[in-house]
Design brief:
This protein is mainly alpha-helical and 411 residues long. It has 15 helices and three strands.
Amino acid sequence: MNFFKKYFKGDPNIWAIIVGLSVFSLLAVYSSTGTLAYRWTGGNTAFYFIRHSGFLAVGLTVAFVLHMFPYKYYARLSHWMIALAILLLLATMFFGDDVNNARRAFLGFQTSDLAKLALIMLLAQRLASRQGEIHDFRKTILPMFAIICIVCLLILPSNFSTAAMLFCICMILLFVGRASIRQLLKLCAYTLVGGTLLVGGLYGLQKAGVNNVVTQRSETWVKRVDRFFVNNPEDNSLTENFQALQAKIAVGTGGFIRIAPGNSIQRNFLPHPYSDFIYAIIIEEYGILGGIIVLFLYLNLLYRSILIMRKCDKTFPAILVMGLSLSVVFQAFVNMAVAVGLMPVTGQPLPLISMGGTSILFTGAALGIILSVSREVQKEEGAKIQKTTEKKLVEVEPEALEESISPISSN
């Protein structure tokens, strides 16, 4: 116990959440990769489990290392990280690899994950440094909004759901950073106009017969929305896409309580049961109660992050914790909503549970930074308690001294 207290600083509840998610991750990935193993590794079911365990170990190591550094260093790194992220996003757009029929990776690296982390860090730093000018729309809010739009537009062609989530998180951070409702309404108006022009431009390109990455992805977005909302009983291809239908079967099979690790049936039918639809596999094997436990872990992470934010005396760590926790929890909510049929298919992995190196790496980085802020907050609280105790001792000691002297003087 002393070992953990010495080396694992920060909120112990968040460390417990990380352990809980990791356990679910190992069990679910081992179970859901059986068919994949027989297809590509000659039936070696331990191959993907060992590989995923390695990725998970790297992600947890990143969290441990980053939580040891003071959060002030991340403010200094934010400008370099956003520049690197923009360069990699541009490289992905022109030279990236296709992942699930979308150009998302550059040399096997998911650049959007780096962009999310970098943009949240930069926005927290800018909001903290401009608190004295936060009500100046042109000098403060508009430049931040321009950076948000640039990053989100670069992510948009390859990953619409990530771009949309990141944009919403940034709007929330602007609100938390004391931007006025009037300023946010202006930004919403700009977004509405820009979105209308973008949709109109894509429609015009499609009508003109232009075939590129952007038009292909926009067509995919429309098809996914159609398949989710259109209910035509005579045409099953429009009622549900294959993935979502198999995920619903998995959720229905699980019932309320089930303890059947490794006994999933739908893992043999879902195209990506180890990543996009791993939550459906968890419910199939552990029932709705297992799904609720996973949901509770993410909700508890958000709750603990809010508590850390409220204890922060400075703006940068408060906004940083809120942004990073929202990025993890929002992504988890989207993945779970897709798995149970509440949203169209988006391709978002379940943070720290789904198999995938880049996602686990940057989820670990986000959690490590949150723990870094928590660690500094605990230090500050400890220093305050010590000062208060010393002050009380200084006030009490003279009184005690007078009481001990007074009987002698009276004699």
